[in-house]
Amino acid sequence: MKKHALSDRRKFILNMARGVGLATMGGLVWSAFIDEATASSLMLRPPGALKEEDFLKTCIKCGLCVEACPYDTLSLAKPGDKKPLGTPFFTPRDIPCYMCTDIPCVPVCPTGALDESSVTTEGVLDINVAEMGLAVIDEESCIAFWGIQCDACYRACPILGEAITIEYQKNERTGKHAFMKPIVHADACTGCGMCEHACVTEKAAIQIFPKELVQGKAGNYYIKGWDKEDEKRLKDAGEIHTTTDISRQKASDKLNGDLLEDLYE
Amino acid sequence: MKTLWNNYRYLFLRRFTQIGLLFLYFGANAWGWTILQGNLSSSLILNVVPMSDPYAALQMLVAGALLSSDLLLGVLVVTLFYFLIGGRAFCSWVCPINMVTDFAEFVRELIGMNKLTGVKQPASRNLRYWILAISLVVSAFMGVAAFEFISPISMVHRGLVFGLGFGWAAVLIIFLFDLFVLRHGWCGHICPLGGFYSLVGKYSFIKVHHLEENCTLCMKCKVVCPENQVLHMIGKESLPVLSGECTNCARCIEVCDDDALSFSIRSMAQNKKTGE
To answer: Please, where are the H alpha helices in B32-180?
Structure first.
């Protein structure tokens, strides 16, 4: 059979289809890679960092924060670190954030990924309002919870007495000693990691995690009735109706009707 | 010695600026120098002048980031600089990957790869503009600067300043790709940053000019040029190299024994004449 040369029109259409096809393929592979590459949620960011999603958008990976840090706390994620490539993070067990009062790492950020306003109170830089993470204590491995006296984390805490307090409790086992249990207070803890750095156990019993990772959320349904401030929320509370298959009918109808039949089927 | 300098003067200068800039960046992180802090994505000269990668900023913009004034100022500085001296001067005078791909080309010549693969290239040099476009679409879609997460340029430069990790693998991949897969593959076909700067530098002032009267048609310039499609006028017409894809690497000027090629400031009159 004689081979026909492709017409110009067909050539044009085929080339267009090829271009679009290749671009789509490349774009999808690329997107899939990006999705994986940005997936890590265990990053501890420098003070003042935007929330992770915005931080990944905004950080240009220049490392000026890394160079500004006088303690070599920060590093940029390298290939092989299994963290979003090139973004700054710190590992408190190695080097914690020493909470410099002039926060040199933040104002140097050219893109605002480290947001000065989030670490400023009344126009002055204030490292104590930073939210880099939250210290979490593993009571199983913390020797203070065993009854052995240790307050290393409490002593190391730059805002001791606020971010970490010691709770005294009678040790019933010996009958004459006290537990001195460290308690972390999330509203004051900045996540600097001095406690994790100081912790005496083989693997730190107090560790820093990103706040959104470890903090729960009670939601709007619960109110502290004993708290005057919290109770004010009731004032503006509207009624919320939730309609489900069961609540659509009156309870008696539903219970005497097909629900029972459903149950006995 | 004189001829050695004459034949490689721009190459020496380019390696000097490439390595020198790397050294300044490295010194900033290692010893706290303040001459040039940061890296090629964004940096600060003497704690005053900001510089930012305009292509990275463009990706951030379409990804939905709020661009700060510091960043925009840095973008302006860099864009203006390359707009004037020729966008792809970045590629041949600053980018660390240039040394890798130049080395790959050197080895290609040495072992005769170029004879094996012949002159015909299986891929279009317009690929980089496609990748540039796709990078912006993916950035918009994924909400992050897409190329910045895979860019071997930033990976390697950042790596050399802040610690490389497995970044050496990126260097090796590009080297092997250029050596065995596609001649001038990364810089000449794939790299969207090069594509971006090709567009930025299209109307720059510093251009290589060709004097047809002096040309003996030896074609050494076309052999040595990593983007030899831009030298289409050789031996035909006295024209400046107008394509933005020229990297101003000046290898053609060095290898020309007949003074048929030189740098000059492009005059506006000439632009009008050629209709560019």
So the answer is: 54-63, 69-85, 89-93, 97-111, 113-117, 127-142, 152-162, 167-176
